[in-house]
Amino acid sequence: MRPTILNPLFADITVLPGIGPKIAALIGRVIGPRVVDLIFMPPANVIDRSARPTIAEASHGQLATFLVTVDHHNPPPKGRRLPYKVVCSDETGFLTLIFFHARSEYLLKTLPEGKKRLVSGKIEEFNGERQMVHPDYITDPEKPEDMPLYEPVYPLTAGLSAGVMRKSVVNALKRAPELPEWQDAAWLSKHQWVDWHAALEELHKPTNQTDLSPLTPIRKRLAYDELLANQLALMLIRKARIKTTGRAIAGNGSLRAKANKALTFDLTNAQKHVLKEVFDDMKSPERMVRLVQGDVGSGKTIVAFLAMLNAIETGAQAAFMSPTEILARQHMESLAPLATATGITLEILTGRDKGQARNEKLQRLAAGEIDILIGTHAIFQETVVFHDLAIAVIDEQHRFGVHQRISLTQKGPRPDLLVMTATPIPRTLALTAYGDMEVSQITEKPPGRKPIDTRTIPLSRISDVIEGVKRAVAKGEQVYWVCPLVEESDILDVTAVEERFETLKSELGDRVGIVHGRMSGPDKDAVMENFFDGAISVLIATTVIEVGVNAPNATIMIIEHAERFGLAQLHQLRGRVGRSDKKSSCLLLYKAPLGETATARLKILRETEDGFIIAEEDLRLRGAGDLLGAAQSGFPQFKLADLSVHGELLAAARDDAKMIIERDIELKGERGKALRVLLYLFNRDDAVKLLSAG
Ligand code: ADP
Ligand code: MG
Description:
By secondary structure, the chain is of the alpha/beta class.
């Protein structure tokens, strides 16, 4: 149960004065529904009204505070639309204060004639006169404390005013308790970080732009708290999972020997290295939960296959899961010859299997007659029962949510889990999302690959590009042509591909095929089949071909509106070519003019094919939140930590978490108890639940 000390922070924001259901809904949408969400929202900007120029010195548009004498109120205007004016002055000139829809009694009270007042706001020059429309503050110079010199500015949304937001945060902060220190004392003093409560107060009191930086000591301390909670939670979860022992799997190597003989290539050293890590994991009685990262084309499939054979050698079964039907079928096809050579049974199960045929497959699976079941998420269904599932492989992990990662592992008696991702996740991100797994990397690609000639070309030159495609097709080459998602809309998306399909068909006739997400499964298969066979030379597609598709003969990748894609996605798409020893190219068509960031992003692609460099740069240019589309990727969203700059803090938090677990895995000591509070503070109730009551 969450410690009661945190209750004030986990209350609904409607407990705050001035926040009714309407404002709560708005704040809920931008920031979050609870008090804690408000206190953890760093200001986006700061208003500085500390400048105190004279009226004559102030420049047009300047935000400043003036000490003035109220000379007189002009007679109230006749029309409702006309402004009410109050003329003020200092020794250097006049300043007219302007009010619309004013109540004169109120103004006469706040701006009594003959009295001195501090007025703060934006000064403007109008018809040669200095004026200020609706000053932000009017105060008695005897009580300067009534006016804040600095005000934080928070992210807003329509209907939510800066003032309401500011007040809400102030009130939220009042509910923040003093909490026990969860950070290591030596570490705190080394960095000269203040305690949590003080840091929080400071966070919301910026006085200049520097204070807004994520690199201030205050912000670093708070970011570290968040990262430590993340790392500690992941490690606790991992420890708990390891405790639920798996089984020791070590085949006799017979099937693997046959497979190796059937292979037309030698494994790379990187593949061998990863396989050794995998086999070691499988051999240990602890449950394997390992992520294999390998850039596109690094040869993950064969690694997965050999790992599965290891399990099959012991008489057990394996599952191999792909994010799309196309990919599942392709794995089926590419592994079929190896399976035959090895003498094992491969089967595929997707959403398309229905009725009698499906039942038959399920029966064979339950009877243990199928060694490897390849499939899409259809494998997750409850009716799918294995005879003895020992290892599950998930290919292209980022397409699956965390939820699926869990549900899959409930099949069979604690199967080992091997997760494969083609997205070279920056190390920093991998730690936050996959801290609960071991990570292996396939660090090299098979030899003999030629670099992919990557060019950027404005869309205005599309007719040249089409001519180029025609020439390439005449020479027997194959081309992918990718059209982007249009505003996340499936339908528009399809229109774009269909239009492009029509133009290219009119140029190239039957050699052009089309594939997109709204086609039926069998239709998609037929087209892909034709492309793999070479019956089709140009494949117009949406990003359905993004992951995994392997047509080694394709040598040209054209991506329309490349500027609309993420870097990692472009890299994945480009990875569809250059899969043989033939020379390949990638044309990134963009709509001019390109902004600075877009230019920089496309430039990176031209300069490198190293997925890790691309991913790191993507992180730097876009920030972690955007990187993979957080919702689909299951990556955590941080409020205070910013992984594009806090990478070192993350590494430190990881070491810290490791040490904590070594010393006090039940979090029972003094620091341990404080750390429990930290975990709750960052919503890691899931991790605390794994501990015994403390
Ligand atoms: P990815 O890591 O992108 O999933 P694949 O497993 O699809 O890559 O492999 C890409 C291509 O490289 C396939 O055609 C595969 O047969 C081939 N391949 C894999 N390993 C090697 C190797 N060691 N030497 C040569 N080719 C290899
Ligand atoms: Mg693959």
